[in-house]
Amino acid sequence: MVNVVLLFGGQSVEHDISCITHKQVVDAIDSKKYQVKSVYLDKNNNFFILKKEMTDIKNQISKCNLRKLKVKRKNKDLFFNNYKVDVVINCIHGKGLEDGTISGFLDLLNVSYTSPSLESSIIFHNKFYAKLILNKYNINTVDYEYVNKYQWNNNQNEVLRKLNRFNEVIVKPVNLGSSVGVILCNKKDLSDAIDSGFKYDAGVLIEKKLNKFLELNQAFYVVNGEIVISKIEEVKNNSTIYDFKDKYENDDITRVVPAKLSNQLRSKITKTTKKIGQIYNSKGVMRVDYLYDLESEILYVNEVNVIPGALSFYLFEAKNIYFQTLIDDLIKEAKRSKIENDNLIKQFNSNVLNKKNNKLK
Fold first, then answer.
1. Which one of 23, 73, 151, 260 has the lowest number of neighbouring Cβ atoms within 10 Å?
2. Using one digit for the tens of pLDDT, what is the confidence trace for 214-227?
3. Predicted TM-score (pTM) of this structure
């Protein structure tokens, strides 16, 4: 059997969402193929290993079920406490974790893991970096301005002058997900909204608000070099803005899978998703969130979600790729990717240390 570690929790505003993703993976994974242990990061990023898997999320992360994690290596094998680790399924969301931090940590441990690479995580988790990359490849994004704290603290008037072209805007902390900290506002309230965004992050994105639009999502992952693309989802929301409460606590949200779209729009979305998959070219599931402007008939990429909640399994199930198969594919690709990475040249022999004068110029 393959020894799998499920990693979840962490110091993030999306901590609770990560716990739900973890629970859904626990319920779906094939226990005949995989031995499973879970590692929990508490809200201070302390690592614990669960003594046993439990069905109730709150009891699962109670103190009585946690042991401090000890990481050790024997020869080439990695152990968490006395459990040999073959592959890690990363169920962690949010700033300081999903943004490449956990990927970098797992790279240092030299272990197979299912989430995107360090580079892909950094680029696509940051909404500003993602727009720069997408625009370079001629993929439409909504008109925006990016502001960091230094710019805001030292030149507010210039920032507001640039933003004067917008009547209504959406202010987003640049590294947060799950619509946390997102504010819809007009010019009058813009300064307060930007100040609020800086309570969550060191940078904020200010985007033009569209008037009439569709919210559409499509996910993808790579296995054996092939890009697997899900069905398209339409999110129907009566609220003015799709915030955290709407996303996870509002029962009035309707999700239509597959979305009822024209063949032309469906084809355009799928081609764009595939193009992003080719840019990204790495392991793990990513979800592309689209906005389709009904007035201009322009398709925009709103965000690219590096580790979507529950890994967007339901979008693939609509294509008859069920959660168990999705997990199998993610593990297969994680192991293949590690073998490929292990074969790269990582050491270079030189005579620099043998020189009498070892000073660098």
1. 260
2. 999 999 999 988 99
3. 0.90
